[in-house]
């Protein structure tokens, strides 16, 4: 089999070792005589998978007893609504930062449920920059301050975080577990798995005691964070296989050296690509403010859309897949999450230099 270098923004490349383990374990899970895909969730093997996934997450992030973990279906998109329903009902207020396409969706759903205050808006700068975190503060009485730690489409990433009165809530979908974070500032973190830690179909939610206590208790069962936490993500039939894949990816990450390794590897991968952009005499242009360039999604433009089309087609033919920018913004986007080997990035860098030589 010829395995492509997959630069897709999500679902994205997974570690080959993880795919091979899943393949080996697929038909007969650890001698159970059946596949995990066929097994009741009320059984020791499935509960074991859930426990191991949560335990790995707790070790990686250093979560203590005041943090709760839930594996929820519905993607990060569902969290836009679930978050608002739990914390913004009954006229309550939430602060949001508007950093791009994903923040915009979170804000729109927030507004349908409660009062929303946009404390920083990147619209005038086309979402190419972020505020100095020290300049961001929360409103009086606000339940949380929401931010999108990495804008997957725009390629803009918070490098450090506000220290404001209200707890931070973060959509970390596209840079979750790519670096250490100051956990004590966050009340709730959510991340759809398919960007950095697994396949689509499960979202990790981490929240504190305080946030749990502030949830709207009158919500229907599935919408309430409390129900998921109390039932240890088995409120209903959970996406078992997705949680299993997350477990394998987290254990893979841990074996590599955890978040310190991830941060260093992300710096190396993104450094190679930004180096090629910077050294291209303007042939490749990254529109993002240098201070906030993403280590996960490297976006850039070529001198014309025609050249961009050719770039994507020739890259594809060279085994470099998924480089087309998001349809809403165009251009090129190389997504280089935890599972992207440095060799993949080096192959892309080589292709970029060659392409420029031929077309510059
Ligand atoms: C992909 C993405 C989402 C949406 O994820 P789904 O799981 O498809 O709902 C939300 N936020 C960010 C930052 C993303 O990258």
From TrEMBL:
The modification N6-(pyridoxal phosphate)lysine is found at residue 195. Keywords: Amino-acid biosynthesis, Aminotransferase, Cytoplasm, Pyridoxal phosphate, Pyridoxine biosynthesis, Serine biosynthesis, Transferase. GO terms for biological process: L-serine biosynthetic process; pyridoxine biosynthetic process. Homodimer. Its EC number is 2.6.1.52. Pyridoxal 5'-phosphate binds at residues 76-77, 102, 152, 171, 194, 236-237. Pathway: Amino-acid biosynthesis; L-serine biosynthesis; L-serine from 3-phospho-D-glycerate: step 2/3; Cofactor biosynthesis; pyridoxine 5'-phosphate biosynthesis; pyridoxine 5'-phosphate from D-erythrose 4-phosphate: step 3/5. GO terms for cellular component: cytoplasm. Transmembrane segments: none annotated. Belongs to the class-V pyridoxal-phosphate-dependent aminotransferase family. SerC subfamily. Catalyzes the reversible conversion of 3-phosphohydroxypyruvate to phosphoserine and of 3-hydroxy-2-oxo-4-phosphonooxybutanoate to phosphohydroxythreonine. This is Phosphoserine aminotransferase. L-glutamate binds at residue 42. InterPro entries: Aminotrans_V_dom, Aminotrans_V_PyrdxlP_BS, Pser_aminoTfrase, PyrdxlP-dep_Trfase, PyrdxlP-dep_Trfase_major, PyrdxlP-dep_Trfase_small. SUPFAM superfamilies: PLP-dependent transferases. GO terms for molecular function: O-phospho-L-serine:2-oxoglutarate aminotransferase activity; pyridoxal phosphate binding. It comes from Phycisphaera mikurensis (strain NBRC 102666 / KCTC 22515 / FYK2301M01). Its cofactor is pyridoxal 5'-phosphate.
């Amino acid at each position: 089999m010829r395995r492509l270098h997959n630069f897709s923004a999500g679902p994205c490349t997974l570690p080959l070792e993880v795919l091979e383990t899943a393949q080996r374990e697929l038909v007969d899970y650890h001698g159970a005589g059946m596949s995990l895909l066929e097994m009741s969730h009320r059984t020791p093997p499935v509960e074991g998978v859930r426990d191991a996934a949560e335990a790995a997450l707790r070790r990686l992030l250093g979560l203590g007893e005041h943090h709760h973990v839930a594996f929820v279906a519905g993607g990060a998109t569902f969290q836009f609504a679930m978050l608002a329903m739990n914390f913004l009902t009954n006229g309550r207020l939430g602060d949001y930062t508007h950093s791009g396409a994903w923040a915009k969706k979170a804000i729109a759903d927030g507004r349908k449920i409660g009062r929303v205050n946009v404390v920083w808006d990147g619209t005038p700068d086309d979402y190419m920059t972020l505020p100095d975190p020290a300049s961001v503060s929360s409103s009086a009485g606000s339940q949380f301050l929401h931010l999108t730690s990495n804008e997957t489409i725009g390629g803009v990433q918070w490098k450090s975080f506000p220290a404001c009165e209200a707890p931070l809530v973060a959509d970390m979908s596209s840079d979750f577990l790519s670096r250490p974070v100051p956990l004590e500032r966050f009340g709730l973190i959510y991340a759809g798995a398919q960007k950095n830690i697994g396949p689509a179909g499960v979202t990790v939610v981490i929240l504190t005691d305080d946030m749990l206590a502030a949830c709207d208790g009158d919500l229907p069962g599935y919408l309430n964070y409390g129900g998921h936490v109390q039932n240890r993500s088995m409120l209903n039939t959970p996406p078992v296989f997705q949680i299993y894949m997350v477990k394998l990816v987290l254990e893979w990450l841990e074996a590599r050296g955890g978040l310190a390794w991830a941060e260093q590897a992300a710096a190396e991968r993104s450094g190679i690509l930004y180096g090629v952009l910077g050294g291209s005499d303007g042939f490749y242009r990254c529109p993002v403010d240098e201070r906030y360039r993403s280590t996960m999604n490297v976006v850039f433009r070529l001198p014309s859309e025609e050249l961009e089309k050719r770039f994507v087609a020739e890259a594809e033919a060279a085994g470099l897949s998924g480089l087309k920018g998001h349809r809403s913004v165009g251009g090129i986007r190389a997504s280089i999450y935890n599972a992207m080997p440095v060799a993949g990035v080096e192959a892309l860098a080589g292709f970029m230099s060659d392409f420029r030589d031929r077309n510059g």
